[in-house]
UniProtKB/TrEMBL annotation, chain A:
Species whose genome carries this gene: Rhodoplanes serenus
Domain of life: Bacteria
Family, per entry: Belongs to the small heat shock protein (HSP20) family.
Record PROSITE patterns: SHSP
Listed PANTHER family: HEAT-SHOCK PROTEIN 20 FAMILY MEMBER
CDD domains referenced in this protein's UniProt entry, alphabetically: ACD_sHsps-like
Pfam short name (any one): HSP20
Lineage: Bacteria, Pseudomonadati, Pseudomonadota, Alphaproteobacteria, Hyphomicrobiales
Name used for this protein in its record: Hsp20 family protein
Residue span(s) of domain SHSP: 16-127
TrEMBL record, chain B:
InterPro entries in alphabetical order: A-crystallin/Hsp20_dom, HSP20-like_chaperone, Small_HSP
Species this protein is from: Rhodoplanes elegans
Ranges for domain SHSP: 34-146
Family: Belongs to the small heat shock protein (HSP20) family.
The protein, known as: Hsp20/alpha crystallin family protein
Domain of life: Bacteria
PANTHER family named among the record's database cross-references: HEAT-SHOCK PROTEIN 20 FAMILY MEMBER
Pfam families assigned: HSP20
């Protein structure tokens, strides 16, 4: 599994001023699936986008800016912005059965491995 | 951006700000493997006439696992980030999310009306509303005509 974010970053130029963050990820593999956990606190579930193009899995989301009325920001340690990360899967995945669940700011992706087609024997015609 | 206005008039901690900046760089450019453990959770503080709002990014923690205490002007957040349990036969490819217990204490420049303080947890972000008691609010004083 390769992380190809740096390449994706150089090509894209965002229109909005919001910064783009790389969500921290946990990835583990069981016998029949690859499970990914991505931390995206504050992300708007409506903006969550998970796409699988061949073997490139891209995850994007953006968080709604939080600005309570009548208050001013006096101390900031984190920013609202966009989340974006792309992975190249080394394993063939069944794209139709990918399960995505967003709970408490963590996106959990379950990617079931595609069942390998049985090896085919090819008969050679002898001339 | 890294001002310590709301933290009880303490001197800004330069070393802490440096760590914070480094963490921000890591977050933007993706060097999570070299991330320096900074204070957790990261918080934003909003100040207003009625009090303050503190927001903290605590993804992956169940809301009932976060312990919030308010005592006079001190707010403490406590909790534990549980590791994902992948099972025995699983192969771990990446483990960038940090786990373990955390605690953070913030001192506000005013007393908090603990009766009226409220908290909600939205998509991994904790939002704490900390109003000032009415008796403590600044009152406008009119000048009597002589």
């Amino acid at each position: 599994m390769t992380d190809n974010t740096s390449g994706a970053k150089a090509q894209t130029e965002t229109v909005s001023q919001a910064p783009t963050f790389l969500p921290a990820a946990d990835i583990y593999e069981t016998n029949d699936a690859v499970v990914m956990l991505l931390e995206m606190p504050g992300a708007d579930p409506q903006s969550l986008n998970v796409t699988l193009d061949k073997r490139t899995l891209t995850i994007t989301a953006s968080s709604k800016p939080f600005a309570p009325q009548g208050y001013t920001l006096v101390h900031a340690e984190y920013e609202d912005g966009n989340y974006e990360r792309a992975f190249t899967l080394s394993e063939l995945v069944d794209g139709d059965r990918i399960d995505a669940e967003f709970k408490d700011g963590v996106l959990r992706l379950t990617l079931p491995k595609a069942t390998p087609s049985p090896a085919k024997k090819i008969n050679v015609r002898a001339a | 951006m890294l001002t310590d206005l709301a933290l009880g008039g303490r001197w800004p901690d330069v070393a802490r700000d440096m760590r914070r900046l480094q963490e921000e760089m890591n977050r933007t450019f993706g060097g999570f493997r070299f991330a320096v453990p900074a204070e957790y959770p990261p918080v934003n503080v909003w100040a207003g006439a009625d009090g303050a709002i503190i927001t903290a990014e605590i993804p992956g923690v169940a809301p009932d696992q976060i312990d919030i205490t308010v005592h006079q002007d001190t707010v403490t957040l406590r909790g534990k980030r549980e590791p994902a349990a992948p099972g025995k036969d699983a192969t771990v490819h990446r483990e960038e999310r940090t786990v373990g217990a955390f605690a953070r204490t913030l001192v506000l420049p005013f007393r908090v009306d603990s009766e009226k303080a409220s908290a909600r947890f939205e998509r991994g972000v904790l939002i704490l509303e900390l109003p000032r008691p009415p008796a403590d609010k600044p009152r406008q004083i009119k000048i009597n005509p002589a």
